Amino acid sequence: GQRELAQKMIEAGADLIIGSHPHVIQGIESIDGVLVIYSLGNFVFDQVEPGTDVGMSVTVLLDEDGGIIYLSPVGTREGQPTPLSDEDAQTIFQTIASLSSEDIAPYVLEGMIPFD
Asked: Residue 46: pLDDT above 90?
């Protein structure tokens, strides 16, 4: 599955894994100290199935000690990314946090995940 593939990528030297393709947002976890974002969901797409009308962009800022990832949820309306209200964004953060590992979930709720 996805975890096994992530583990292989980490063993091959990956420092960060950001996934896509399932068309829905999935959880986030740390494997052996490497952050794994399993799926960003849809960003520019016109699906109508439940959960496919939201996505996420990420900003990765790096420094000599590690970095921080900023999560930015978006809605997709008529196939275009659309900013969400703070309330809707918080709902997305709560969904992602519920799918994420316990050590990462509190950061997800804030929309920022530090890493080494």
From this structure: no
Task: State the pLDDT confidence band at 82, using cuts at 50, 70 and 90.
Answer: confident
Q: Cβ of 110: how many Cβ atoms within 10 Å?
A: 11
CA dihedral 13, 57, 71, 3 (to 10 degrees): -40
Helix, strand or coil, per DSSP, at residue 100:
coil
Instruction: Give dist(CA 37, CA 87) in Å, integer.
Output: 22
Q: In sequence order, which ranges of 1-116 are alpha helices (DSSP H)?
A: 2-11, 86-99, 105-110
54 DSSP 8-state letter: E
Q: List for the chain the helix, strand, coil content (%; round to 5).
A: 25, 40, 35
